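Q: What would this chain look like folded?
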Amino acid sequence: MSWKDPPTRREPSARRSVGPGGLEVWELAAGLASARVIPSRGGLVTRFAVGHDEVLYLDPETLPERSKSVRGGIGVLFPIAGRLTGDRYTVDSTTYPMRPHGLARQAPWGIREVSGARITMELCSSEATRVNYPFEFTYRLTVDLGRAGGRSLALEQEIDNTGRRPLPLHLGFQPYLAVPEERKHQARVETAARTCYDNLRGEIVPYAPPDFGAGEVDLHLLDHRSMGTRLHVPGRPARILQWSAQYTVLVLWTQRYKGFICVEPWTAPADAFNSGQGLVLLPPGERFAGHLIITVE
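A: My prediction, written as C-alpha cells:
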C-alpha cells in the first residue's frame, strides 16, 4: 500500500489495546490522521500518520525493553534536554545525577483524561523523581489529533510548580521524523540561523545546511529565532513544525544508516542546569504552558 493511496476519513476516537511486551497502547484517530501513544514508556507518541503517510520513525526492537530508551517517536525531554557536563548538576551544595534528556521519557505516565481523539497524561513528583530532581511538580501532556482537518498532531504541555522554591526547567521535544536513507542527502530544514554549536566537534561554528545523508549530524542552532520550521523530504509532503515562543534553540540530529532526522525544539542550549544560560526558573505556584504541533502539508 502506497502513502499516495486514497486515505479514509474517521470520526475522532481513542481506543485502548495491548502492544509489545504487554504495554498499554492508545490508538487515536481523527479525519485523515492516526496516532499511537504509550503512556508507560515516557508518555511516548510512537506513531503519527496522515492517510498512509507515516510521519515518525520507530525502532520497534527498543520499544518493549523498559530499561532502555526508545529510539523513535516523539520523546518528552524533562527536566533537561541534552546531556549535562559529567551527567550531574548541583543544587544547594548537593550534587545530583541526571541521565541525558532527563526523567520523563523513562517514566510511566498516568492517564488523566481521554476524550475523542485526545488523551491527557500526567507525571508527578515522587520519591523516585526526587532522587535526581529534588523539586515538586505536576506535568500534564495532552496529545490531540483534532486539528487542521485531521492532518496535525498537537502536544500541549502544562507544568505546575507545586513546591515552595523555583522549579528549574530545560525542556524539549524530540520528534524522530521518518526520512528514507536514500532521500536524506536531499532533505532540508528551513532556517535563517547563522550560528550553531556542533556537538560532534564540541565548538560553535557558522551554520551551513548539512548533508543529512553523509553521516551523523548533531547541530544546535543558537539563533534560529522562528517559532517553527519545515522539513522537506523529496517525494513527500512537507512536515511543518510549530512551537511556542519559549523554545529558542533548534537541534538537528541524525545517525548514519538510520531512517530519521530529529528536528528538536529546546528552551535553552545544552547544559543549562550548570551554565544557567536560558534556564527557566518557574516560581512556586506558577505554570509553564507550551506546545509542539506537527502538520503534514
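The radius of gyration is 19 Å.
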